[in-house]
Automatic annotation (TrEMBL):
Cited Gene3D superfamilies: Dihydrodipicolinate Reductase, domain 2 (3.30.360.10), NAD(P)-binding Rossmann-like Domain (3.40.50.720)
Molecular-function annotations in GO: nucleotide binding; oxidoreductase activity
Protein name: Putative dehydrogenase
InterPro entries reported in the protein's UniProt record: Gfo/Idh/MocA-like_OxRdtase_N, Gfo/Idh/MocA_oxidrdct_glycsds, GFO_IDH_MocA-like_dom, NAD(P)-bd_dom_sf
Domain of life per record: Bacteria
Pfam families linked to this entry: GFO_IDH_MocA, GFO_IDH_MocA_C3
Residues in Gfo/Idh/MocA-like oxidoreductase N-terminal domain copies: 7-123
Keywords annotated in UniProt: Oxidoreductase
Domain (GFO/IDH/MocA-like oxidoreductase): residue spans on this chain: 133-269
Amino acid sequence: MSGGARLRAGVVGAGFIGAVHARSARLAGARLVAVAASTPESSRAAAGRLGAERACKSGEELVAADDVDVVHVCAPNHLHLPLARAALEAGKHVICEKPLALDDDGAAELVAAASAGGLQAAVPFVYRYYPMVREARERLRGGRSGPLRLLHGTYLQDWLSLPADANWRVERRLGGASRAFADIGSHWCDLAEFASGHRIVRLSARTATVVPERSASGTAAFARRDDDGPRQPVDTEDVALVQFETDGGALGSVVVSQVSPGRKNRLWIEWDAADAALAFDQEQPELLWCGRRDGVALALRDDAALSAPAARFATLPAGHPQGYGDCFDAFVADVYAAIADGEAADGLPRFADGRRAVQITEAVLGSAAADGAWTAVPAPAL
Ligand code: SOE
């Protein structure tokens, strides 16, 4: 991309999240030059639906295209490593959906390849882009709340609560050995560490598959099968319960579920420090609950007194509800700014953060397989 020209983006994977990436790419000023889906026919349909300049026959064709500067990898999880590897080898910047890879070796390979190529490489832990998460981070890491003692919360969804609910993530061969925790527990742990500066050093986990058989999976992200077609056994977890210790001496716990009726996308996290407790609820993202012994206050997205990092993202008109898509827009804009000027904004979730999530997920699976045995989480690579 020559100086001043518009960045040229390609999206591999045209399901629910591929469409979110495509929208944010265009809002960030990129040309959406190509889209690739699972077949040439579905690629052509996706190009029309997403407003891309052309369809590529395959993801492999797209990542090799000379007129693509940045690749958004939004295909099923088992394809993340090969597609991101090929894109980096072709000198492309990469945004890759989590999990970055299905194991730590793959994630480490991608971190090293991005670094060796001097390429921007990010993972959309987009909940970092809620202004009130940044406000919590400033208060926790700035010392205003005192030493952190406890982190706790839940991430609950219901889109897989019935046997008729199908999705490729349910199948280990497509989504990886962990489903619920890798998919959404990773977000919760990323926020827990991002806002507090603490690192999880060991954990004890239990997982369960509470829906033992499901309809055959489909490629659609949230397909519900009403038919009484054949069912197949499920080999990934619906729920995970994790307790953990941090390097800062705090204790924590999180409940992760994709089978909790009525909970659509309910991420709730609380950081309890000596002088104040802070709580963020993704279903009420305009506020940060701030508890003290002398009373409870609410910090609001529209407050004039927000910290600078929070105010940077509190740009929506007052009353405009901040949503998932707004966080994605801010995240993609930060990645594209890093591509343009070579410097990543504070808090940009990079491939190293994606690897971190894979390491925590592996520890969860290892502990759950050992009846909840306390299991070490590797320290992040420097
Ligand atoms: C489905 O669980 C999903 O789309 C996740 O894949 C996203 O990462 C999360 O932000 C919302 O729910």
